[in-house]
Amino acid sequence: MDQNFTAVIKQDGEWWIGWIEEVPGVNCQEQSKDELVASLREALTEALEFNRQEARLAAGGQFIEENIAV
């Protein structure tokens, strides 16, 4: 299942700066918009995987997973 997230992007002088609106702490800065989008995608992927691992560790040995849509 593909997930969609919103990147908030702006140019500040010679730099492009961006944040993922739905995930605090995922932000990047690059010299081109294309590089920024690629960096945001990579940082978001890493953050989501880290969060998955942390949640599973916190739950312990036995747990169930439930999809939740909003």
What structural keywords apply?
70 residues; alpha+beta; 3-stranded antiparallel β-sheet; 1 helix; elongated
Descriptive account of the structure:
The protein is α+β, with helices and mostly antiparallel strands. It has a domain at 1-31. The protein is built from one helix and three strands.
What's this, in brief?
The chain is an alpha+beta fold.
**Class of secondary structure makeup:** alpha+beta
Instruction: Estimate the global geometry from the Cα principal axes.
Output: elongated
The overall pLDDT average reads: 96
What is the helix tally? Answer: 1
Query: Quick one: how many beta strands?
Result: 3
User: How are strands sequenced across the largest beta sheet?
Assistant: 1-2-3
Radius of gyration: 15 Å
Give the helix level as a range of percent.
25-40%
Elements, N to C (H/E): EEEH
Give the helices and strands, then pairings:
Elements lengths: L6 E6 L2 E6 L6 E4 L2 H27 L11
Antiparallel strand pairs: 1-2, 2-3
